[in-house]
Amino acid sequence: MKIKGLEKVSLIDYPGKIACTIFLFGCNFMCGFCHNPELVLKDDGVKFPEEDILDFLKRRHGYLEGVCITGGEPLLTLNEEFVLEIRKLGYLIKLDTNGSNPEKLEEYLDKGLIDFVAMDVKTVPEEYQKMTLSSVDIKNIEKSIKIIVEKAKDYEFRTTIIEGIHDPDKIRRMAFWIAEIAGKKPKKFVLQGFKKGVKLIDPTFFMKNDTTEEFLKDLKGLVENYFEKVEIRV
């Protein structure tokens, strides 16, 4: 496990909580619109020692409520002992995942080590390979959806919306797919607006426009019947 970054305070990464965010290196997807290429591409060897992170969390006890563990894809390398130490300090733990490792996800949930799961759903099943530039086993994605709905204390599914790539029909089909796999209305679906970052894996995405709030609102109206709650984040 390589910790590549620490955001000491975040009011948005863990919904409703004051949290810090830990960034782990490594991902099995190569989404061109990813804002964290330094967590996905070549490793520069620099990392934060786990002991330093735990010392920070000890000092911030009483100020922070939760810890968000993200990446890259954290389930590729996440150290269970590290998570246990965070749990011993009394923090709530949120995990961000792309859903490609359902066995590891289920293991952490069964052990009660994760309080909140946020799973990124990239697109409709038939376009996953193209969107991620990776070999994706859709059955694993579907298993993760089912596991989250059945076992997570709290969770959300979310999609980064890129105008010109995610059209209304595609989003409607994706929402239907998630709800069908879940077997019921999942708790929450979040439509996130794409924004050009300082760094992106694929520079051609700098040619895309930032997603407008109006477009997200239109999509929200199309998928509200499939979920208990739909939110937009611009």
Labels describing this entry:
21% strand; 234 residues; TIM Barrel; alpha/beta; 7 helices
Main beta-sheet strand count, sense and barrel state: 8 strands, mixed
For the secondary structure, the number of strands is: 8
Average the pLDDT over all residues and give the rounded result.
95
Strand ordering within the main sheet: 1-2-3-4-5-6-7-8
- Residue fraction in strands: 15-25%
Q: What is the second-level CATH architecture?
A: Alpha-Beta Barrel
Count of folded domains: 1
The CATH topology name reads TIM Barrel
User: At the first level of CATH, what is the class?
Assistant: Alpha Beta
* Cα gyration radius (Å): 17 Å
What is the count of DSSP helices, taking H or I runs of 4+ residues? 7
Assign the CATH superfamily. Answer: Aldolase class I
- Measured between the Cα atoms of the first and last residue, the distance is 31 Å
Indicate the structural class: alpha/beta
Q: Which descriptor suits the 3D outline?
A: globular
Helix amount, in percent? 25-40%
Q: Could you spell the SSE succession in H and E letters?
A: EEHEHEHEHHEHEHE
Uncertain spans, ≥5 residues at pLDDT below 50? Answer: none
